[in-house]
TrEMBL record, chain A:
InterPro entries: Gluconate_2DH_su3. Pfam families: Gluconate_2-dh3. Keywords: Oxidoreductase, Plasmid. GO terms for molecular function: oxidoreductase activity. This is Gluconate 2-dehydrogenase. Its EC number is 1.-.-.-.
UniProtKB/TrEMBL annotation, chain B:
GO terms for molecular function: flavin adenine dinucleotide binding; oxidoreductase activity, acting on CH-OH group of donors. Belongs to the GMC oxidoreductase family. Residues 216-344 form the Glucose-methanol-choline oxidoreductase N-terminal domain. This is GMC family oxidoreductase. It comes from Pantoea phytobeneficialis.
Length: 242, 589
């Protein structure tokens, strides 16, 4: 059974470094600076997860890469370090479930109208969700999720989303696959679009792609200028520009 | 053993809008006033630029909102269902800490209308017997427009409200809302600027013969000093408004409008991280002796007081009344009892219009900027033939312009390359046509204590029994047609909508609806059907006054705070001018 670390596809690396060049170009810095800056992909490779185990980390890299792939439209989840964002979120009060009401009794099978009703905090949801998805993937395709070709990864993710993957067959009655997917997707989008201080949206690349100016937060003139594309790039909470 | 604090004249529980108003009004009268606030202190300096410009922290992780860990609610649709806790914030997001929800509200300062205050009278005049659904429990507010308007007027001055006057002392003014109740004074400040979506909506509705006006705003349009001497800076359209604390000292909050002044009074002080669990009663049951709270060390403390003001937000007030055994709990079968009855929420929803060739720059916006029509407001159209009572305001605004909140084109995949392409094409190219709709009280929607779930102090959670009202769903189908007509007039590339259907059910989570919860401890003329008299004084315990939207007998389509604040000023006046001289029931039952 394939349990060795999976490899991330090559394409994202290339796109990631192109974005690096583009942003340097905007700052007017030339080659010497360029040489000193590691690519976002190299940085991601060097990142040591604070919460996820090595196997879980490979899953996260592979899943995020499919949820927001790198392509000609713009940067993907790996270029923008979304898995780093999610890893860091796990150690926050949100990840630990400290903000939620987590007293029983729990009714994990309640209608979706009631929102989250499972008996675990986010950390446990991820831990179980990843392991169960790998089990599902091994039964269906004989391989861990991260070892599957892209098309099959997408098929597994779709099975999760549509709640076709039935985790109760692996003895987990409380975890609904569709819900695990929803949270994974939501956190992936958060990591893509949040301020870079949380570990994702590396170089504000996602903000640049959609023309969101970040934390500039002052537009007394622009409220009066209608139907003209805003010309300035984003600023982060810590004051970086891109 | 329980700790005991020094006695005060007035104890205020909860330091949001209502608590701050009562604080300053009663401190000015010379009373020794203390406020107890469950959450943290929140100073303006904590929210200086750029800290609030953080979508993850404020919108997604609810940084300044009531954490379900500290106070959750349980929810069910009807009495035969088992209620489950709202484990993470969803449909409504209460405030927490000094300032309460007044720190992260949107700042739309729409008022109810004279018709809203006298709904029962209106219903009797405009609907034949049997024309309305049997389940409705419509009631009049026990105050008149003339009584309450001067207090809403004063609150407008406190906030520095910015808007266009539509009705000045009975004379209709060009450009304002011709359907509004008569104002005793014009808005203190001119309206906020229109963003592109607001301009388009204004044009379209004007062309259709409707009456658009600028959203009344508690974010000031120009530099302003309010009656308490507080200086408020003009809004800079930062784009982080609803759910965020203002980074610019512009959106009226208890902090910007009242608290800095209030803290200067020697006869006022406040304690934070003081979680009140109960109002204590005298042995005769007719007066309160004070309140018990759990302090930051987890110790139980008794705070004696001559007057107790509950201002913990409507839902929390109802829970405290129930946990203190004040007033008889409502029974939906016998319809006896008063605490918990007439609980209402409010309706949202709308159309999203995508324009491939327009640049909306949605990040350049203020929460309350926008344009509105009240043409379909309660009483402004005859609806007896249509089978419903009530109405909605229809508007276009852009409360925030952040990317995670962005609408995505209809039919786009939710992930993968297709999603990313759609995000790129959608962000900055859409606008909303939205509604806020009235919610009638019914026999079966009510509040009580949950029999199973408790908070970390062992106190039962509040149980909300609530589902959409058929009368209101019919109203929404009508509004949908009207909104679709406006949408078509605007001629977008494509559009989608999320208006409720006739068979929709309330979802407590995960999507935000609004925090305009009302009812549960309503004001009225009759102690058998209301918890509070016309001065918001408890019928049962005369030195207990309860501030908040819990007093509304049903919910209107306006945002609640103008009325919540107006009622607080009205009640404070009654305490100062009548109650202090002669403590006892202000209305004889
Ligand atoms: C996102 C959002 C947008 C909104 N937008 C608008 C708008 O545009 N226009 C409008 O009119 N209204 C709006 N509202 C509603 C508005 O915020 C409320 O009507 C208003 O703040 C209510 O004031 P309050 O003083 O009754 O309660 P709050 O402001 O909620 O204050 C209650 C305080 O009591 C404290 N408290 C609660 N329980 C206890 C306890 N047991 N012991 C001690 N302290 C306690 C809370 O921590 C809180 O600080 C919005 C609300 C939200 C959440
Ligand atoms: S939009 Fe205006 S009022 Fe709202 S938070 Fe920004 S500066 Fe304050």
């Amino acid at each position: 059974m394939a349990n060795e670390p999976c490899r991330i596809g090559r394409r994202p690396f290339i796109i990631g470094s192109l974005i690096g060049i583009a942003s340097l170009g905007m700052k007017g810095g030339v080659s010497s600076v360029f040489a000193a800056v590691p690519s976002t992909a190299d940085e991601l490779k060097q990142y040591q997860p604070v919460f996820f185990t090595a196997e879980e980390w490979q899953f996260m890299l592979a899943a995020c890469d499919r949820l927001i792939p790198s392509d000609r439209e713009g940067p993907g989840a790996l270029d923008t370090h979304v898995p780093v964002f999610i890893d860091k979120q796990m150690l926050t009060p949100y990840g630990k479930g400290e903000d939620w009401y987590m007293e029983g009794p729990f009714d994990s099978h309640a209608s979706l109208l009631f929102g989250y009703q499972m008996p675990f905090p986010l950390q446990v949801l991820y831990r179980k969700g990843i392991s169960l998805t790998n089990q599902y993937s091994r039964i269906k395709y004989n391989q861990n999720f991260c070892d599957l070709p892209a098309r099959m990864k997408d098929a597994v993710l779709t099975d999760l989303q549509k709640n076709v993957a039935d985790f109760s067959q692996f003895g987990e009655a409380d975890l609904n696959a569709g819900y695990f997917f929803t949270r994974l997707l939501e956190n992936t989008k958060e990591g893509y679009l949040a301020d870079p201080q949380y570990g994702g949206n590396k170089n504000m690349a996602a903000w640049k792609m959609i023309n969101f100016p970040g934390a500039r937060a002052s537009f007394p003139q622009w409220i009066k200028i209608h139907n003209v594309k805003y010309p300035l790039g984003p600023v982060s909470l810590s004051g970086e520009q891109a | 053993m329980k700790k005991i604090n020094d006695a005060v004249d007035v104890i205020i529980v909860g330091l949001g809008w209502a608590g701050s108003i009562m604080g300053i009004e009663l401190a000015q009268a010379g009373l020794k006033v203390r406020a107890l606030e469950r959450g943290e202190d929140r100073l303006n300096s904590d929210y200086a630029y750029p800290k609030p410009a953080d979508e993850l922290a404020f919108t997604k992780r609810h940084k300044i909102m009531q954490s379900p860990h500290d106070a959750a609610f349980t929810i069910r649709h009807n009495a035969s269902e088992t209620a489950l806790p709202m484990r993470e914030l969803g449909a409504f997001r209460l405030g927490d800490g000094v300032g309460g929800a007044g720190l992260h509200w949107t700042g739309m300062i729409t008022r109810p209308t004279p018709v809203d205050l006298k709904m029962k009278t209106y219903a009797d005049e405009h609907f034949k017997r049997g024309e309305l659904d049997e389940e409705l429990r419509i009631a009049d507010f026990p105050v008149s427009w003339e009584e309450i308007e001067p207090h809403m007027d004063f609150f407008d001055k406190v906030c520095g409200s910015s808007g266009e006057t539509g009705n000045l002392r009975g004379v209709i003014q060009q450009g304002g809302d011709p359907f509004e109740g008569a104002r005793s004074n014009p808005f203190p400040n001119k309206p906020l600027e229109d963003s592109l979506n607001a301009t388009l909506f204004r044009q379209a509705t004007q062309e259709m013969g409707l009456h658009p006006y600028s959203m009344p705003s508690a974010a000031v349009s120009v530099p302003y000093t309010n009656p308490y001497g507080q200086q408020i800076a003009p809004c800079n359209y930062c784009g982080f408004c609803q759910f965020y604390s203002c980074l610019n000292y512009s959106k009226a909050s208890p902090q910007t409008a009242i608290l800095d002044r209030l803290k200067q009074f020697n006869n006022f002080d406040y304690k934070t991280r003081a979680n009140v669990i109960r109002v204590e009663k005298h042995a005769d049951g007719k007066t309160a002796t004070g309140v018990t709270y759990i302090d930051e060390n987890g110790d139980e403390v008794f705070q004696p007081a001559s007057i107790v003001i509950l201002s913990t937000f409507g839902l929390n007030n109802v829970r405290l009344l129930l946990n203190s055994s004040i007033g008889k709990p409502y029974n939906p079968i016998t319809e006896e009892g008063v605490i918990g009855r007439n609980y209402t929420h409010q309706y949202g929803g709308g159309f999203t219009l995508f324009f491939d060739n327009l640049e909306f720059n949605p990040f350049a916006t203020a929460g309350p900027t926008g344009t509105v029509i009240s043409d379909y407001g309660t009483g402004n159209v005859e609806t007896a033939q249509l089978g419903f009572i009530g109405g909605a305001k229809i508007y276009s605004s852009q409360p925030t312009g952040t990317p995670m909140a962005a609408a995505i084109k209809k039919g786009a995949p939710s992930w993968g390359s297709g999603w990313k392409k759609a995000l790129k094409e959608s962000y900055g190219h859409s606008m909303g046509v939205k509604l806020e709709g009235s919610n009638m009280a019914t026999r079966g929607n009510y509040l009580d204590l949950d029999p199973v779930y408790k908070d970390r102090f062992g106190m039962p959670l509040l149980r909300v029994t609530y589902d959409y009202v058929q009368n209101d769903l019919r109203m929404l189908q009508y509004m949908k047609e009207k909104m679709e007509a406006i949408t078509k007039h605007l001629n977008p590339t494509q559009y989608s909508h999320n208006i409720l259907k006739m068979d929709s059910h309330f979802a407590s989570s995960p999507n935000y609806v609004n925090t305009h919860n009302a009812g549960g401890a309503i004001m009225g003329d009759n102690p058998r059907t209301s918890a509070l008299n016309r001065y918001l004084q408890s019928w049962d315990v005369h030195n207990l006054f309860v501030m908040g939207a819990n007093a509304f007998p049903q919910n209107f389509y306006a945002n609640p705070s103008a009325m919540v604040a107006g009622l607080a000023y009205w009640s404070a006046k009654a305490i100062r001018e009548q109650y202090l001289k002669n403590p006892g029931p202000l209305v004889q039952a």
